[in-house]
Amino acid sequence: MGRTRPGERGPAGPGPAAPPAPPPRRARVLALLGALLAAAAAAAAARAFARYSEAQAAARQDSALKTLGTEGLFLFSSLDADRDMYISPEEFKPIAEKLTGSTPTASYEEEELPPDPSEETLTIEARFQPLLPESMTKSKDGFLGVSRLALSGLRNWTTAALPSAVFAARHFRPFLPPRGHVELGEPWWIIPSELSVFTGYLSNNRFYPPPPKGKEVIIHRLLSMFHPRPFVKTRFAPQGAVACLTAISDFYYTVMFRIHAEFQLSEPPDFPFWFSPGQFTGHVILSKDATHVRDFRLFVPNHRSLNVDMEWLYGASEGSNMEVDIGYIPQMELEALGPSVPSVILDEDGNLIDSRLPSGEPLQFVFEEIQWQQELSWEEAARRLEVAMYPFKKVTYLPFTEAFEQAKAKNKLVHSILLWGALDDQSC
């Protein structure tokens, strides 16, 4: 073997592999073109499938229209919640219950819990005076095509569906403030609004409310005392329920709330008739663990001359066949007859005590006086809930004459708004 001299290189060893030669430009262009063609073909296939699906849906709707007629298709569509042109057993359930006269099975979460004989209960009474027909400004019989049939659901609603009902104190747990909301007047949502001025509104063509879930359950049960078909969420924004604390003690809260809900007064084959009070407001005084309710009241404010919006269809088209009016309802109120009390009374040894005295009179409970440490006025709490529902109310709105005085003092212009109803509730 020869030696390598200084300055000379030895035999070349195995070096790093040479990088592969780049594909020809034509091959790269063809590959890119192929990918684009494949994507275009997939998009075209998707569009074709969508057109096919739309055509099938249109064909089914056309067939249904020929079979059922306009009014029949309208009724069918009111039950077809997912708009797939098929009525599922769940969608048909309200009609089946109507035809068979069966009572809808309860799906309320709190009713699934076994009753606790030691828990406290309270009785709530409904007070209801029907809407005054003379307060409806344009919907007199024979005017604008309004008929007695169109208003039959309203005319027949003269009493509360359930004059009184017993609730467990724990049913009011959803009114407790969430963690972190223990400041007076700080609003929180019991039922958040799912709509805004940008998301439109829900369909008018519905008869039966969806099953309530979670915190909706107690509000649905309370409103069902007025009428069997309450919609906990309104068709228009702002929906839901908002609350805030107005008083705090060592063991109790006073919670003020505002609820936007409405009722469907008609059932098939009549057309839908929507009854939308301006708002439900009220308060509940309850212990911090929701085992005791000291007081409860819910009502539609009646201090304004108009406090209910009504909208109803008189044909199969939602847009062109709808009438609207506003009216006044004198009383729509729920109130607890007294604080919650134990269902059974036990002595110190756990033995059952007779709830009646030897004279036959029921035992009288003595409740301690609540010492409130912090309190907020009803007016200020109502204003804060109003702003939560309607953020534009952050601006101060003044009566007509006061506005001019303020404008003159501040050298500003006046922005005047004239309405048929109220801008800050659901009656307008």
Automatic annotation (TrEMBL):
Record field: compositional bias (Acidic residues): 108-119
Residues annotated as domain EF-hand: 75-102
Region of interest (Disordered), ranges: 1-24, 98-119
Pro residues bias: start-end ranges: 13-24
Xref: InterPro entries: EF_hand_dom
Domain of life, per lineage: Eukaryota
PANTHER family found in the cross-reference section: SELENOPROTEIN N (PTHR16213)
Entry protein name: EF-hand domain-containing protein
Organism: Rangifer tarandus platyrhynchus (Svalbard reindeer)
